[in-house]
Amino acid sequence: MTRSFKTLDNMGDIAGKRVLVREDLNVPMADGEVTDDTRLRATVPTVTELADRGAIVVLLAHFGRPKGVRQPELSLALLTRPYTVLLGREVRFIDDQGAADVIATMEPGQIGILENTRFDPGEEKNATQTVERLAALGDLYVNDAFSAAHRAHASTEGLAHVLPAFAGRQMEAELDALDKALGNPEHPVAAVVGGAKVSTKLDVLEHLVVKVDHLIIGGGMANTFLAARGVDVGKSLCEHDLTGTAEAILDAADKAGCTVHLPYDVVVAKEFAANPQSLRTCNVHEVAADEMILDVGPAATEALADVLKTCRTLVWNGPLGAFETPPFDAATVALAKTAAALTKEGTLVSVAGGGDTVAALNQAGVADDFSFVSTAGGAFLEWMEGKELPGVAALTR
Question: From CA 79, how far away is CA 84, in angstroms rounded?
C-alpha cells in the first residue's frame, strides 16, 4: 500500500544514531506498581527493533498532568524498573538536567527514558525553545504515540518539523487500520456508536452518517434518538433538549442513504443495580414511566448481528448498554462475539477504540479477535469526528 508517512523501513542505517521516540507510557500505577501494562506492551516492537538495529534509543513521554511543574510522584524514573522487566533489557533514566551528557555516554543498542516531557511548561504550548531543547538530544524522530496525536505538543508535533520524522510500528498499525476502517473502507460499512450522552458524540455521529452504510446507536444516547421519534423512555437517561439535534442527524442519514438502527426491544428495570428484581424485556413502546432502559433487547441484538453479516467493515466506539453492571452487558457481549466470529472468518474488517470499548471487548473475551483495537481515547474519537490530528499531520507533510 502507498502511505503518506515514512516508517522504520525508510530509516536506513541507524547504528549509533540518537533516535528520539515519542511513546505513550502514561500507565496507571498504585504503590509503585504498574496496574495495567497495555500501553507499555504496545511500545515493545518499535523500541526493540530500533535497539536491535544499533540506535541509541531515547524515549519521550508524558506521565499524568503536572502542568509544567516538577512533581516527584509523576517522574518517569518510576517506570524504568517495570519497563526493564518488560523489555528484558536494561532501561536507564535520563534526567532533564545534563541529558545531553548522559546520552553521549550511551552505546548503540542502549535505551533510556527522558524525564516527563510535561515537567517543561513549554511542552503543551509547543514552544520553540522546548522543541529545540529536545531536538538537540537526537538525530532522528519517531512518533509511536497515536493516543497523544490529537495534541500539538513539542514532543508529539513540533519535533516532526525539525528532525527527520518517522512513524513507529504501533503508529503505523493504527494509521493502517484507521485507513481501512473509514479512510478507504470496503463497503458496506457499519459503525457502532454507544455511550451515555449524545452531546459527547455529536461530531462523531454527524461525520459518520455520510461515511457509513449502517449506523448502530446504543447506550444512553439511543434513548435521546428514541425520544426524538416520539418514544416515551420513562426515567431513562435521556437528553430531551437534544431531540431536535437527533432528528437533524436522522434526516442527514436519510439523505446520505445511511440506515440508522435503534433498538426496538429493550431491557428495562426500575432501579439501576446488578440483576435487579424489576428486570424485564419489552418493546420500546411499552416502557413504563418508572422504568429505565439499560440495554438493547435480544431480538434487536440478533437483528444487528444479521446486519453485520452483510457488512465488510465495522468501526466500534462505545458499549450498547450499561455494560459494567450485569446483566446489562448482554447485548454488547453478544454483538462483539458476532463481530469477532465474522472477523475470524475473514468476511469483516473490525476496528474498535476508546477506553470503554476496549474494556467491553475484553469483558466479552474477544479483543484479540478484532482486526485492530486502538488503545487511544481522545485521539480515536477525534479521528472518528473527521478531524485532522496534529501528530499525524506532522508525519505526513
Answer: 8
How many domains does the chain fold into? 2
Q: Are residues 44 and 110 in the same domain?
A: yes
Q: Which three cell numbers stand for residue 169?
A: 510500528
Range of weakest confidence among 75-79, 143-147, 271-275, 356-360:
356-360
Query: What sign results for the dihedral spanned by CA atoms 63, 64, 67, 72?
Result: negative
Is the same domain home to 30 and 135? yes
**CA torsion sign, 25 to 26 to 29 to 35?**
negative
Confidence band (pLDDT; 50, 70, 90) for 321? very high
How far is 252 from 257, CA to CA, in rounded Å? 9
- 374 Cβ partners below 8 Å, 6+ apart? 146, 147, 174, 177, 178, 351, 352, 353, 354, 358, 380
Active-site residues, by number, are: 39, 197, 355, 378
Cis preceding-peptide flag for 188 (omega within 30 of 0): yes
DSSP state letters, 170-204: HHHHHHHHHIIIIISPPSSEEEEE--S-GGGTHHH
Which of these, 122, 177, 179, 173, lies nearest to 152 by C-alpha position? 122
For residues 154 and 280, membership in a common domain is answered with: no
Q: Does the pLDDT at position 355 exceed 80? A: no
Q: What is the pLDDT of residues 188-197, one digit of tens each?
A: 999 999 988 8
The pTM of this model reads 0.89
271 plus 357 within the same structural domain: yes
Give the pairing of strands 313-317 and 349-353. Answer: parallel
pLDDT at 1: 57
| Beta pairing partners, 94 | 114
Length of the chain measured in residues: 397
* CATH code (residue 329): 3.40.50.1260
pLDDT at position 31 is 85
Boundaries of domain holding 294: 185-384
